[in-house]
Amino acid sequence: MSKAMNPQIDEAWCGDLARYPTRPFFKEQSIWAVWVHRFGQRVDRRPAGLRRRVLTGLYWLLFRAVETVVGISLPKEARIGPGLRIWHFGGIFVHPGTTMGRNCTLRQGVTLGNRMEGGPAPILGDDVEVGAYAQILGDVHIGHGARIGAMAVVLADVPDGATAVGAPARVIPQQGDRRTATQQPRAGEAPRLIWTEHSWR
């Protein structure tokens, strides 16, 4: 299995483990989904051949088993930086096209998905926290350090460091200006985060 390892995947997995308690496999079902996600990415980096095909089959068995048992769908195609923390389990869906930065936090019932079949998926910056049963849908950028409240429905960008609550989500004002997340202006805002593996370092 060590030949399937990749330094960037190792870094990501070590970052994940750092946010969990000791011996997490015996204490937190969510770590099973995180491990399977990282394992799938390791397999994708193997050279083509019989061993990769066998390991890919093993990945899909593990993915479906974890998805069914703990209710967390975290496909290997999602691009997720180090330090992912999932609190609790059940009803968590992450679209394969989703991008997340470092040290993001998800809770039970969260959906990160698209708004229509074949549509774009969300981009989350670093240190984003998503509350229980929140939905972040479509071509949405969640800025670094943003917080999404429980049961919020986010349909447009949320600025760095902001807190968004409600359905549709509204950004809690910091300067007395209350704005709906579906009305966030794009002109003059910081560029959208384009996360790559190299940005882990």
How would you briefly describe this protein structure?
The chain is of the alpha/beta class and 201 residues long. It has helices at 7-18, 30-44, 50-70; strands at 72-73, 79-80, 85-87, 92-94, 99-100, 105-107, 111-113, 123-124, 129-130, 135-137, 141-142, 147-148, 153-154, 163-165, 170-171, 179-180.
Task: Provide a descriptive summary of the structure in words.
The structure is a single chain. The protein has 201 residues and is of the alpha/beta class. The protein has two domains: 1-71, no CATH class; 91-188, Hexapeptide repeat proteins (UDP N-Acetylglucosamine Acyltransferase, domain 1), CATH 2.160.10. The protein contains three helices and 16 strands. Strands 1-4-7-10-13 form a five-stranded parallel sheet. A five-stranded mixed sheet has the order 9-12-14-15-16, with no helix packed on it. Helix 1 runs antiparallel to helix 2 (30-44) and helix 2 runs antiparallel to helix 3 (50-70). The protein starts with 6 loop residues before the first helix and ends in a 21-residue tail after the last strand.
Would you tell me the structural class of the helices and strands? alpha/beta
Any idea what the radius of gyration is?
Answer: 17 Å
What does the average pLDDT come to? Answer: 87
Distance between the termini: 24 Å
Low-confidence stretches: 1-5, 182-187, 189-201
